[in-house]
Amino acid sequence: MHETELWITKLFNDYLAGVGNTLTGLAGMAPEARPWANFVTMQLLVAAIIVVLFAILKSRLSADSPGKLQHCFELIYDFVREQAHDQVGHASRQYVAYFGTLFIFILFCNLIGVIPGMESPTMVPSVPAGCAIATFFYYNIVGVQANGILKYLAHFAGPMPFLAPLMIPIELVSHLARPLSLTIRLFANMYAGEQVTMVFLRLTLLLFPAIFMGLHIFVSILQAYIFMLLTMMYVAGAVSHEE
Question: Which pLDDT does position 1 carry in this prediction?
Answer without folding.
Answer: 40
